[in-house]
Design goal:
Elements: H1 13-16, E1 33-34, H2 46-55, H3 68-78, E2 85-88, H4 91-102, E3 109-112, H5 118-126, E4 130-133, H6 143-147, E5 153-157, H7 169-176, E6 182-186, E7 207-212, E8 225-228, H8 231-240, H9 248-259, H10 261-284, E9 288-289, E10 296-300, E11 302-303, E12 307-308, H11 310-322, E13 325-326, E14 340-343, H12 347-364
Parallel strand pairs: 1-13, 3-4, 3-5, 5-6, 6-7
Antiparallel strand pairs: 2-8, 7-8, 9-10, 10-14, 11-12
Helix pairs in contact: 2-9, 3-9, 4-5
This protein binds pyridoxal-5'-phosphate.
Length: 367
């Protein structure tokens, strides 16, 4: 029987109305300087390929359902029990499980006005009201307004995306001292930060920390992330996740990366050095840039004569794109629309970017 396409039944109303997550562009073809999705510009540790190759002959077998060996290695490293760790298919998987397990129509989610935009999509999928706590331009965190916001689960990105600003362990403890809900600290960029919230786990059973292999380990394509939390929280998330949520190759590859600490300390250090050098260059241009504890810089382009704002930021974004340099632009909020987020690449990539920025600055100069 032939049925007309219109005969597809209606989905749930909140799904029909859902605005999907918009990932950063992944261009086809060669020659792009890709500084738009905070990927790691350096190659993965050679041990990863070895580990994945060794795993290939075992592909007919289902993977370990709880990613056991990787879970143990991560628990050991953080000084935690296996029961306090959950491995996800990327940390986005873990965030999704948190929404599924703790949020619904009557149990709202919270985030800062400036934060990782996936949270609002996940709230939409789960049909959960989303409470946004206001930010000021200084991005000073107000623990009181956050703990009083009424959300059942609060998702705090620290270091923050897209600003790169990190919140201190003390500030997070200040929130937890007064917050009744579940506080999820999304530490996707913790490897580039001076401090993290892991030591607080022992004192606060309502704290969840999420991490990823996508940024500091340069394994965005492998899809591995994890949660650290109280065993009761982990048990709940374990019930909800796909039983084989992390495939064999990803488990093996992530474990090899995790154990190659020397290689990654070196990579992270190089990225931090490049970040600080580039931040200095932006300072010389007189652009306002947030201090970053991540692998990107959030900077406010300013042309000679002081032209600054959404129009200038979008103009530079397009100017760079025309020269095959991709950065990220966030429209729609007065706190982000005059800025560009630039991932820290190799020194060579940053030099290419800087040369293009200089062209743009000169172009704007009155003749
Ligand atoms: C990149 C990113 C993630 C997603 O990590 P995956 O492990 O690739 O899913 C989560 N949170 C923030 C803030 C990120 O920037």
């Amino acid at each position: 029987m032939n049925r007309a396409p219109e005969s597809i039944p209606q989905a749930l109303p909140h799904i029909e109305a859902l605005a999907p997550y918009i990932p950063g562009q992944q261009p086809d073809g060669e020659g792009w300087v890709k500084l738009n999705t905070n990927e790691n510009p350096y190659p993965p540790s050679p041990r990863i390929a070895e580990a994945i190759r060794a795993e290939l002959s075992r592909l007919p077998l289902y993977p370990n359902p709880s990613s056991g060996t990787l879970r143990e290695a991560i628990a050991d490293f953080h000084g935690l029990e296996n029961s306090q760790v959950l491995i996800g298919n990327g940390s986005d998987d873990v965030l999704n499980l948190l929404f599924r397990s703790f949020c619904d129509k009557g149990k709202s989610a919270g985030m800062l006005e400036v934060g990782y935009s996936l949270y609002s999509v996940l709230a939409g999928i789960q049909n959960t009201p989303l409470i946004k706590v206001a930010c000021n331009r200084e991005m000073v965190l107000d623990p009181k307004s956050l703990s009083a916001c009424g959300a059942s689960v609060f998702f705090l990105t620290s270091p923050n995306a897209p600003t790169g600003v990190s919140y201190s362990r003390q500030q997070i403890a200040d929130i937890l001292d007064h917050y009744e809900g579940l506080l999820v600290v999304d530490e996707a960029y913790a490897a580039f930060a001076q401090e993290d919230a892991v030591p607080l786990l022992g004192n606060y059973p309502n704290l969840v920390i999420t991490r990823t292999f996508s940024k500091s380990y340069g394994l965005a394509g492998l899809r591995v992330g994890y949660a650290l939390a109280d065993p009761k929280v982990i048990q709940l998330l374990d019930r909800v996740r796909d039983s084989y949520n992390v495939n064999r190759l990803s488990q093996a590859g992530a474990l090899a990366a995790f154990l190659d600490t020397e290689y990654y300390e070196n990579v992270i250090n190089r990225i931090e050095v490049t970040r600080e050098v580039f931040r200095e260059k932006l300072k010389e241009l007189d652009w306002f840039t947030y201090p970053s504890q991540s692998n990107y810089l959030f900077t406010e382009p300013c042309q000679p004569g002081g032209r600054v704002g959404a129009e200038a930021a979008r103009d530079l974004f397009e100017f760079l794109q025309d020269r095959k340099i991709l950065v990220r632009y966030f429209a729609g909020s007065s706190l982000t629309e005059s800025f560009l987020r630039i991932s820290v690449g190799t020194d060579e990539q940053m030099d290419l970017l800087l040369a293009a920025i200089e062209q743009w600055m000169n172009r704007a100069q009155p003749k």
